[in-house]
Protein backbone atom coordinates (compact mmCIF):
# COMPACT_ATOMS: atom_id res chain seq x y z
CA UNK A 1 0.00 0.00 0.00
CA UNK A 2 1.38 3.37 -1.04
CA UNK A 3 1.83 5.86 1.85
CA UNK A 4 -0.62 8.75 1.99
CA UNK A 5 0.54 12.38 1.82
CA UNK A 6 1.48 13.83 5.20
CA UNK A 7 -1.26 16.44 4.80
CA UNK A 8 -3.83 13.68 5.45
CA UNK A 9 -2.45 13.01 8.94
CA UNK A 10 -4.97 14.34 11.47
CA UNK A 11 -2.77 16.31 13.86
CA UNK A 12 -5.28 17.26 16.57
CA UNK A 13 -5.09 14.04 18.65
CA UNK A 14 -1.27 13.82 18.52
CA UNK A 15 0.43 14.07 21.92
CA UNK A 16 3.96 12.73 21.36
CA UNK A 17 6.54 12.05 18.67
CA UNK A 18 8.75 8.95 18.52
CA UNK A 19 11.43 8.99 15.85
CA UNK A 20 14.32 7.10 14.37
CA UNK A 21 17.57 9.11 14.28
CA UNK A 22 19.86 8.41 11.32
CA UNK A 23 18.56 9.73 7.99
CA UNK A 24 15.27 10.61 9.70
CA UNK A 25 16.34 13.42 12.02
CA UNK A 26 19.81 13.75 10.53
CA UNK A 27 20.79 14.88 7.04
CA UNK A 28 24.18 13.82 5.70
CA UNK A 29 24.93 12.42 9.18
CA UNK A 30 24.34 15.74 10.96
CA UNK A 31 21.48 17.46 12.75
CA UNK A 32 20.81 20.75 10.98
CA UNK A 33 20.20 23.88 13.08
CA UNK A 34 16.61 24.07 11.79
CA UNK A 35 15.99 20.44 12.79
CA UNK A 36 17.39 21.07 16.25
CA UNK A 37 15.02 24.03 16.54
CA UNK A 38 12.12 21.79 15.53
CA UNK A 39 12.92 19.41 18.41
CA UNK A 40 13.05 22.35 20.82
CA UNK A 41 9.74 23.63 19.44
CA UNK A 42 8.06 20.27 20.12
CA UNK A 43 9.41 20.30 23.67
CA UNK A 44 8.27 23.92 24.16
CA UNK A 45 4.73 22.99 23.11
CA UNK A 46 4.59 20.02 25.48
CA UNK A 47 5.15 17.12 23.09
CA UNK A 48 7.42 14.39 24.52
CA UNK A 49 10.10 13.45 22.00
CA UNK A 50 11.53 9.92 22.12
CA UNK A 51 14.35 8.86 19.81
CA UNK A 52 14.17 5.18 18.82
CA UNK A 53 17.56 4.27 17.40
CA UNK A 54 20.09 1.59 16.62
CA UNK A 55 22.83 3.89 17.89
CA UNK A 56 24.81 2.87 20.99
CA UNK A 57 24.22 3.48 24.65
CA UNK A 58 27.09 5.98 24.65
CA UNK A 59 25.29 8.08 22.06
CA UNK A 60 22.06 7.89 24.04
CA UNK A 61 23.69 9.30 27.17
CA UNK A 62 25.20 12.14 25.16
CA UNK A 63 22.05 13.03 23.22
CA UNK A 64 19.90 12.92 26.36
CA UNK A 65 22.19 15.54 27.88
CA UNK A 66 22.34 17.73 24.78
CA UNK A 67 18.79 17.60 23.41
CA UNK A 68 15.40 18.20 25.07
CA UNK A 69 14.38 14.53 24.81
CA UNK A 70 12.00 12.70 27.10
CA UNK A 71 13.74 9.39 26.37
CA UNK A 72 16.04 7.60 23.95
CA UNK A 73 15.84 3.94 23.04
CA UNK A 74 19.27 2.65 22.05
CA UNK A 75 20.76 -0.34 20.25
CA UNK A 76 17.44 -1.30 18.64
CA UNK A 77 15.66 -1.78 21.95
CA UNK A 78 18.47 -3.19 24.10
CA UNK A 79 17.79 -0.39 26.57
CA UNK A 80 16.20 2.95 27.20
CA UNK A 81 17.24 6.16 28.96
CA UNK A 82 14.77 8.68 30.29
CA UNK A 83 14.85 11.97 32.11
CA UNK A 84 13.87 12.29 35.78
CA UNK A 85 14.42 15.94 36.65
CA UNK A 86 18.17 16.47 36.31
CA UNK A 87 18.90 12.74 36.37
CA UNK A 88 19.21 10.38 33.41
CA UNK A 89 17.93 6.90 34.27
CA UNK A 90 19.03 3.86 32.26
CA UNK A 91 17.06 0.63 32.02
CA UNK A 92 18.39 -2.36 30.05
CA UNK A 93 15.88 -4.65 28.35
CA UNK A 94 18.51 -7.03 26.95
CA UNK A 95 19.79 -9.91 29.07
CA UNK A 96 22.93 -8.97 31.00
CA UNK A 97 23.78 -12.15 32.92
CA UNK A 98 25.76 -13.77 30.07
CA UNK A 99 27.04 -10.69 28.25
CA UNK A 100 30.55 -12.10 27.76
CA UNK A 101 29.26 -15.21 26.00
CA UNK A 102 26.89 -13.07 23.92
CA UNK A 103 29.78 -10.96 22.67
CA UNK A 104 31.89 -14.04 21.97
CA UNK A 105 29.07 -15.41 19.84
CA UNK A 106 28.70 -12.13 17.93
CA UNK A 107 32.47 -11.95 17.41
CA UNK A 108 32.47 -15.45 15.90
CA UNK A 109 29.69 -14.48 13.50
CA UNK A 110 31.50 -11.31 12.46
CA UNK A 111 34.73 -13.25 11.88
CA UNK A 112 32.84 -15.62 9.58
CA UNK A 113 31.40 -12.65 7.70
CA UNK A 114 34.86 -11.18 7.20
CA UNK A 115 36.07 -14.47 5.75
CA UNK A 116 33.42 -14.10 3.05
CA UNK A 117 33.54 -10.29 2.77
CA UNK A 118 36.99 -8.99 3.78
CA UNK A 119 35.89 -5.36 3.46
CA UNK A 120 33.20 -5.81 6.14
CA UNK A 121 33.98 -3.64 9.16
CA UNK A 122 32.38 -2.73 12.45
CA UNK A 123 30.99 0.78 12.80
CA UNK A 124 33.27 3.33 14.42
CA UNK A 125 30.71 3.70 17.23
CA UNK A 126 31.16 0.01 18.20
CA UNK A 127 33.23 0.80 21.35
CA UNK A 128 30.24 2.64 22.83
CA UNK A 129 27.81 -0.29 22.41
CA UNK A 130 26.76 -2.46 25.33
CA UNK A 131 24.95 -5.29 23.57
CA UNK A 132 24.92 -5.35 19.78
CA UNK A 133 27.38 -5.34 16.90
CA UNK A 134 26.98 -2.89 14.03
CA UNK A 135 28.43 -3.59 10.59
CA UNK A 136 28.91 -0.37 8.65
CA UNK A 137 27.95 -0.80 5.00
CA UNK A 138 26.93 2.75 4.09
CA UNK A 139 28.28 5.28 6.62
CA UNK A 140 32.02 5.40 6.00
CA UNK A 141 34.09 4.03 3.09
CA UNK A 142 34.64 1.45 1.87
CA UNK A 143 30.92 1.06 1.20
CA UNK A 144 29.54 -2.42 0.57
CA UNK A 145 27.38 -3.53 -2.34
CA UNK A 146 23.68 -4.48 -2.10
CA UNK A 147 24.63 -8.09 -2.85
CA UNK A 148 27.09 -8.13 0.05
CA UNK A 149 24.47 -6.64 2.38
CA UNK A 150 21.95 -9.23 1.22
CA UNK A 151 24.43 -12.06 1.88
CA UNK A 152 25.20 -10.81 5.39
CA UNK A 153 21.53 -10.47 6.31
CA UNK A 154 20.77 -13.98 5.08
CA UNK A 155 23.79 -15.37 6.92
CA UNK A 156 22.81 -13.76 10.21
CA UNK A 157 19.16 -14.80 9.94
CA UNK A 158 20.24 -18.46 9.88
CA UNK A 159 21.26 -18.14 13.54
CA UNK A 160 18.08 -18.56 15.61
CA UNK A 161 19.71 -17.02 18.70
CA UNK A 162 20.42 -13.78 16.88
CA UNK A 163 18.27 -10.89 15.67
CA UNK A 164 19.56 -8.85 12.72
CA UNK A 165 18.10 -5.57 11.46
CA UNK A 166 18.94 -3.42 8.46
CA UNK A 167 19.07 0.36 8.72
CA UNK A 168 20.09 2.88 6.09
CA UNK A 169 23.73 2.68 7.21
CA UNK A 170 24.31 -0.38 9.42
CA UNK A 171 23.44 -4.01 9.90
CA UNK A 172 22.85 -4.40 13.64
CA UNK A 173 22.82 -7.87 15.16
CA UNK A 174 22.50 -9.11 18.73
CA UNK A 175 21.70 -12.12 20.87
CA UNK A 176 18.05 -12.09 21.94
CA UNK A 177 14.76 -10.95 20.51
CA UNK A 178 14.29 -7.46 21.92
CA UNK A 179 13.51 -4.84 19.26
CA UNK A 180 12.64 -1.19 18.87
CA UNK A 181 9.00 -2.25 19.28
CA UNK A 182 9.46 -4.01 22.62
CA UNK A 183 11.24 -0.91 23.95
CA UNK A 184 8.45 1.39 22.76
CA UNK A 185 5.91 -0.85 24.50
CA UNK A 186 8.01 -0.62 27.68
CA UNK A 187 7.87 3.20 27.52
CA UNK A 188 4.11 3.16 26.97
CA UNK A 189 3.55 0.77 29.89
CA UNK A 190 5.83 2.78 32.17
CA UNK A 191 4.84 6.35 31.28
CA UNK A 192 1.97 6.41 28.82
CA UNK A 193 -1.06 6.17 31.09
CA UNK A 194 0.16 8.95 33.40
CA UNK A 195 0.57 11.26 30.40
CA UNK A 196 -2.58 10.23 28.56
CA UNK A 197 -0.42 8.87 25.76
CA UNK A 198 -1.11 5.64 23.87
CA UNK A 199 -0.05 4.32 20.51
CA UNK A 200 -3.02 5.92 18.74
CA UNK A 201 -1.93 9.46 19.65
CA UNK A 202 1.78 9.02 18.93
CA UNK A 203 3.41 9.86 15.61
CA UNK A 204 6.34 7.64 14.71
CA UNK A 205 8.79 8.73 11.99
CA UNK A 206 11.38 6.54 10.32
CA UNK A 207 13.15 5.78 7.08
CA UNK A 208 14.34 2.19 6.73
CA UNK A 209 13.58 -1.55 7.17
CA UNK A 210 14.47 -1.66 10.87
CA UNK A 211 11.59 0.78 11.43
CA UNK A 212 9.04 -1.54 9.79
CA UNK A 213 7.65 -3.06 13.04
CA UNK A 214 6.90 0.48 14.24
CA UNK A 215 5.36 1.48 10.91
CA UNK A 216 2.96 -1.41 11.51
CA UNK A 217 2.44 -0.82 15.25
CA UNK A 218 1.72 2.92 15.28
CA UNK A 219 -1.42 3.95 13.33
CA UNK A 220 0.15 7.39 12.74
CA UNK A 221 3.41 6.22 11.21
CA UNK A 222 5.30 8.57 8.90
CA UNK A 223 8.19 7.87 6.58
CA UNK A 224 10.45 10.74 5.62
CA UNK A 225 10.63 10.75 1.82
CA UNK A 226 13.85 8.73 1.57
CA UNK A 227 11.88 5.72 2.81
CA UNK A 228 10.76 5.40 -0.82
CA UNK A 229 14.02 3.61 -1.61
CA UNK A 230 13.02 0.78 0.75
CA UNK A 231 9.29 0.57 0.02
CA UNK A 232 9.65 -2.49 -2.26
CA UNK A 233 11.18 -4.36 0.71
CA UNK A 234 8.50 -3.41 3.24
CA UNK A 235 5.44 -5.55 3.92
CA UNK A 236 4.30 -2.83 6.32
CA UNK A 237 5.15 0.62 4.91
CA UNK A 238 4.47 3.85 6.82
CA UNK A 239 0.91 5.12 6.56
CA UNK A 240 2.04 8.63 5.60
CA UNK A 241 5.10 10.09 3.88
CA UNK A 242 6.64 13.54 3.80
CA UNK A 243 7.57 15.40 0.64
CA UNK A 244 11.10 16.14 1.84
CA UNK A 245 13.83 13.67 2.76
CA UNK A 246 15.76 13.08 5.99
CA UNK A 247 15.98 15.93 8.51
CA UNK A 248 14.10 18.31 6.23
CA UNK A 249 11.27 15.78 6.09
CA UNK A 250 11.32 15.57 9.90
CA UNK A 251 10.97 19.36 10.05
CA UNK A 252 8.04 19.11 7.63
CA UNK A 253 6.39 16.63 10.02
CA UNK A 254 6.98 18.87 13.05
CA UNK A 255 5.49 21.86 11.22
CA UNK A 256 2.42 19.78 10.41
CA UNK A 257 2.02 18.62 14.03
CA UNK A 258 2.31 22.18 15.31
CA UNK A 259 -0.16 23.46 12.73
CA UNK A 260 2.21 25.75 10.91
CA UNK A 261 1.27 26.93 7.44
CA UNK A 262 3.93 25.91 4.87
What would your notes on this structure say?
By secondary structure, the chain is α/β, with parallel strands linked by helices. The protein has two domains: 4-93 and 178-257, HAD superfamily/HAD-like (Rossmann fold); 99-175, Alpha-Beta Complex (Hypothetical Protein Ta0175, Chain: A, domain 2). Helices cover 33% and strands 20% of the residues. The chain is built from seven helices and twelve strands. The chain has helices spanning 33-44, 57-66, 99-116, 146-157, 180-195, 212-217, 246-257, and strands at 4-5, 16-19, 49-52, 71-74, 79-84, 87-92, 133-136, 162-166, 170-175, 202-206, 220-223, 240-241. The strands form two sheets. A nine-stranded mixed sheet has the order 1-12-11-10-2-3-4-5-6, sandwiched between helices. A three-stranded antiparallel sheet has the order 7-9-8. The mean pLDDT is 96.
| Residues in helix, % | 25-40%
N to C succession of SSEs? EEHEHEEEHEHEEHEHEEH
Low-confidence stretches: none
Report the CATH topology name of the largest domain.
Rossmann fold
- General shape: globular
The value of Rg in angstroms is: 18 Å
Second rung of CATH, namely the architecture of the largest domain: 3-Layer(aba) Sandwich
The number of domains: 2
> How many helix segments?
7
Q: Percent of residues in beta strands?
A: 15-25%
Structural class category = alpha/beta
Mean pLDDT: 96
What is the spatial order of strands in the main beta sheet? 1-12-11-10-2-3-4-5-6
Biggest sheet details = 9 strands, mixed
CATH superfamily of the largest domain: HAD superfamily/HAD-like
> How many DSSP E strands?
12
Q: Report the end-to-end length measured between terminal Cα atoms.
A: 27 Å
Q: What is the CATH class name of the largest domain? A: Alpha Beta
